């Protein structure tokens, strides 16, 4: 076989053991390089598979107890100075597999976008909920995050049997649940929810950047970066800014303008 033909062969999803063994007897340096690259990719795939199995521990416990629909819940956007807090609730299929799924903050933007589309297309159900800056001011950010999470659950087309929640206890809630710190690193369902929530919110803040162009929302997602703070000082506060967050609260006390 020619080198290019072998390269195309090694890019296929499944290659028989016999074919690989035969290729390993080929002494050409080009073939050896292709096989070395192939082996590294397979090692990485195996690593992702094992990690996914580890992060399915809580889901498998629920399945073993007779649960059918297990929902992962996460939120994003507690810290920004502008924009809503966004929560997502996701019910994955029992046999689902999303290679490289992890806490959304640990993934590249490209990988998050890829997983976002796959999860939405393949999940049993998912729902997204926004709680805006006015409600954040009314309820405080902690309670607003919990409200967003619970509303996301209530929006699901399929009622879950059990909830796995990232660091937010749902006390006296009608659906059995378990909250865990760093749940997006420990549960595939919560990790899926973290990806859905983050990509949705990041895209939303990019849309707000078109409406409010002086705050660099497309890059900072509403967090208090240098450009964002410069925009606040120069152009004032927008309707999506959180008026009970510093330094916005102090700007209002000093009589700063309300911006756009």
Question: What this model shows, in words?
Answer:
The chain is α/β, with parallel strands linked by helices and 260 residues long. Helix content is 51%, strand content 12%. The chain has helices at residues 3-10, 17-23, 29-54, 57-64, 109-122, 133-139, 141-155, 183-186, 188-211, 217-220, 226-235, 248-253; strands at residues 70-76, 85-91, 125-131, 162-166, 177-180. Helix 5 packs across helix 9 and helix 6 (133-139) crosses helix 7 (141-155). The relative contact order is 0.15. This is Ribonuclease HII. Keywords: Cytoplasm, Endonuclease, Hydrolase, Manganese, Metal-binding, Nuclease. Its main location: cytoplasm. Belongs to the RNase HII family.
**Poorly predicted runs of 5 or more residues:** none
Query: What string gives the helices and strands in order?
Result: HHHHEEHEHHEEHHHHH
Number of helices: 12
* Principal-axes shape call: flat
What profile does the largest beta sheet have? 5 strands, mixed
User: Beta-sheet strand percentage?
Assistant: 5-15%
Q: How much is the average pLDDT? A: 96
Based on DSSP secondary structure assignment, what is the total number of beta strands? 5
Q: How far from one another are the termini?
A: 66 Å
Helix content: 40-55%
Secondary structure class reads: alpha/beta
Strand order of the largest sheet: 3-2-1-4-5
Cα gyration radius (Å) = 23 Å
